[in-house]
Amino acid sequence: MKTNMPPEEFRRIGHEIIDWIADYLAHVRDYPVLPNAQPGDLKRRLPPAAPLQGEPIEQIWQDFRRLILPAVTHWNHPRFHGYFSISGSPPGILAETLIAALNMNGMLWKTSPAATELEEVTLGWLREWIGLPAEFFGVILDTASVGALHALVAAREMADPDARRRGHRRPLVLYTSEHAHSSIEKAALAAGIGQEFVRKVPVDAGYRLHPPALEEAMERDEAAGLQPFCVAATVGTTSVTSIDPLPAVADIAAKYGAWLHVDAAYGGSAAVAPEFRAVLEGADRADSIVVSPQKWLFTPMDLSVLYTRRPEVLRHAFSLVPEYLRTAEDARAVNYMDYCLPLGRRFRALKLWFIMRYLGREGAAELIRRHVAWAREFAAWLRQDGRFEIIAPVTLSLVCFRYRGSNEDNQRLLDAVNSSGKAFLSHNVLDHRFVLRFAIGNIATTHEDIEEVWALLRAAANGL
Ligand SMILES: *Cc1c(COP(=O)(O)O)cnc(C)c1O
Asked: What is the 181 CA–ligand 1 centroid distance (Å)?
């Protein structure tokens, strides 16, 4: 019977796995981006029950390569251009290994001073990199969706401080644009706001929230006795990376006393490059902002940051301390569990610290700069070709385009590119039109990769 792994065995297999990871990162282009898999394929190849007797690590490791890998979508492939392209960067991968080895739980300062203080420090650095004022307090959460939920609960706390005790009574109304991420509406479901009280404000021709429409909706609701409690604006929408006009939105939110949340999960990272600072113009007036280093700051899943200018409101919404979690340092230290729903907290700050130090601000900014430049270049190629049209302004590193043909033609084009295994693009439907999304964001992507996708696309268009 096996009850633990001996250190020598860990060392031997550990070296082998690190070697494999190094080879994987060096040759990831040899893998098809999308697996050639059908639903159920992997499940059929795995035993229905876990083993009674422990198995050799060699066997498990071999089955990872033989069974699991063929069912993997290679998100870390430099030609993964679907959704938003992300990166498990090498420094981040190393930090993840250390995080697992230490396995600490940073619920309180006391439960691991390093977890708490490194989180404070790295989030201070990141705040500076993206140009937010020092009064913003940051909390690391797993995802932007969970960040949105926390923001909405804090907004409810501010609008109706008694809601914590008896639930909220007067209907609260949330405003966001038609192009906001679904996580905003989901947060409203989870926070008990109710879908009927989520207003999806129309957008302008550039898919940006239209301020007069926002003001009109808030005015109407207030006159009807409802309480406009929160406006959620987006910097870099998932559909087209449009950037809502934050200064105008902030004015309107302030007029009605509503909490302003800014979802900058993807777009916020652009502000690391000085020339794109303007994407967060007006964000200093927000009550909360989500920026996800796991999106476009080369940080492995999962790490999203919620910043708020009102930590005391967030704390009032979430702090509930049982006796066994009280410590002598409570008055002198941050206990992150007071600012969020989860009690247990991974040491996520370590990977952000590794990455920020390894790249430096200049390295990170250069990557973002290249990605934006390549997106613009790709859009120019599409325009010059004549067979394609650009569907939305290329604000950052996403190009939304379509072949000048039917929706079916565009679906066929996408299938042809994706089934090649050489690249992956995703799609969207905008105004009933099937649109292809080409997102750049992986740390290992090169200009040759972009050229290769363009060649694939032209070949597929020739075949239509
Ligand atoms: C990706 C994304 C989200 C959701 O992020 P998760 O971390 O997966 O919850 C929300 N908003 C925007 C704008 C995004 O790009």
From this structure: 7
Nearest CA to ligand 1 atom 1: 265
Q: Could you identify the atom of ligand 1 that is nearest to the CA of residue 180?
A: 13
Q: What is the tens place of the pLDDT at every residue in 283-339?
A: 999 999 999 999 999 999 999 999 999 999 999 999 998 888 898 888 899 999 999
What is the DSSP annotation of 208-225? Answer: -B-HHHHHHHHHHHHHTT
Taking alpha carbons only, the member of 219, 225, 210 closest to residue 256 is 219
Q: Please report the atom of ligand 1 found closest to the CA of residue 148.
A: 10
Q: β-strands 424-430, 433-439: how paired?
A: antiparallel
CB 198 within 8 A of CB 188: yes
Pocket of ligand 1 (CB under 6 A): 84, 143-145, 181, 183, 234, 236, 238, 263, 265-266, 292, 295, 304
Q: Is the pLDDT of residue 244 over 90?
A: yes
Q: Order the strands of the 227-234 sheet from edge to edge.
A: 137-141, 304-308, 288-291, 259-263, 227-234, 172-177, 198-201
State the pLDDT confidence band at 46, using cuts at 50, 70 and 90: very high
Q: What is the mean pLDDT of residues 184-203?
A: 96
Q: How far is the CA of 145 from the centre of ligand 1 (A)?
A: 6
Which is nearest to 372 in space by CA: 257, 280, 269, 256? 269
Which tens digits make up the pLDDT trace of 148-166? 999 999 999 999 999 889 8
Alpha carbon distance 445, 31 (integer Å): 15
- Cβ atoms of 152 and 261 within 8 Å: the answer is yes
What does residue 317 show for φ and ψ, rounded to 5 degrees?
Answer: -70, -35
> 265 C-alpha to center of ligand 1: Å?
6
How far apart, in Å, do the first and last CA atoms of the chain sit? 60
pLDDT (0 to 100) of residue 288: 98
Closest atom, ligand 1, to C-alpha of 183: 10
* Residue 423, pLDDT above cutoff 90: yes
pTM of the predicted model as reported, rounded to 2 decimal places: 0.96
Nearest Cα residue to atom 2 of ligand 1: 265
Please give the full DSSP string across 335-347, using - where no structure is assigned: -GGGGSS-SS---
By most ligand atoms within 8 Å of CB, the mutation choice from 181, 234, 294 for ligand 1 is: 181
Identify the pLDDT of residue 324.
85
Q: Which of 184, 241, 292 for mutating ligand 1's site (highest number of atoms within 8 Å of CB)?
A: 292
Query: Which residues sit opposite 170 in a β-bridge?
Result: none
